[in-house]
Amino acid sequence: MSRIAFIGLGNMGMPMAINLKKAGHEVKAFDTVAAAMETAKAEGMNPAASAVEAVDDAEIIVTMLPNGPIVLKVFEEIVPVAAKGAVIIDCSTIDVASAKQAHAMAEAAGLLPLDAPVSGGTAGAVAGTLTFMIGGSNEAFRKATPVLDIMGGRLVHCGEGGSGQSAKICNNMLLAISMIGACEAFALAEKIGLSAEAAFDVISTSSGFCWSVNKYCPVPGIGPESPADNGYKPGFAAELMFKDLGLSQQAAEDAGQATPMGAHAMRLYETFLAEGGAGKDFSGIIEYLKNSARSEAS
Length: 298
Ligand code: NAD
Known about the structure:
Layout: E1 3-7, H1 13-22, E2 26-30, H2 34-42, E3 46-47, H3 51-55, E4 60-63, H4 68-78, E5 87-90, H5 96-108, E6 112-115, E7 118-119, H6 121-127, E8 130-136, H7 138-151, E9 152-159, H8 163-191, H9 196-203, H10 211-214, H11 238-255, H12 260-277, H13 285-291
Helix pairs in contact: 1-6, 4-5, 8-11, 8-12, 8-13, 11-12
Nicotinamide-adenine-dinucleotide (NAD) binds next to helix 4, strand 7 and helix 6.
């Protein structure tokens, strides 16, 4: 049994913390929202009055927060008071530069930091089957593994600090591009008289196959069940995809790397969000593409 501090009990953090508690660990939890603290208490966690109080004598600290500035603000509070040698795992999806800053801050204070963003969504968080993309030292990775194994189905140690975030944003940039591509193919198929069934049967077994078509088809009633079959209820919200595209474009800007398709995908998601896509799954962009005149969305 480890003493674990868990900070950030939102859609993802709460089920992750519940799984740690259910596995027999002592979980001291903190969130700024009172209702989350009530749930944490009801789930048998020890509620802390602040992030500082949560980390007190913790051996493992997990943060699951909205963005880079908030992660850095929380790190500034907790890093100076955390026990030396504690493992500090940030599971939030944040920009690579902030992740590296968080690593530097924690290392300077004698902590063992990891950036460990996840994929798998809230369903994966509840089921304990998240994929963790991890950056940090071998020692931190080894010490964190038993705890990450409870929350995750697959752990990938990507390299040094920040490389977990790098992996996450590269994957999600490609996912956005491939989803838009899949949506374009199905929209065009419909317009030129090819049934979605036939398009799916061919593409899913031909060179166009990809996760966006085969596993998460944006057309209702085609392929395995997906948000398209549920009125495009997320799933993975278009807002979160837009956020991740912003992180990829920031990293591309910092590195001086051309990512024209990533940049275009970000613009398309921005327009989709402004024109009815807010609150919808990211695959719902097919509706925007189908309703756009050829000159509008190019
Ligand atoms: P969320 O907004 O539901 O949860 C964030 C929680 O952090 C909230 O409960 C909020 O009150 C709390 N918080 C904010 N500031 C705080 C502070 N200073 N101290 C303590 N708590 C604070 O978000 P989420 O959906 O749980 O996502 C968390 C992270 O995981 C994000 O970075 C997101 O991009 C990433 N992510 C989300 C999904 C998903 O499907 N929701 C999937 C993969 C990754």
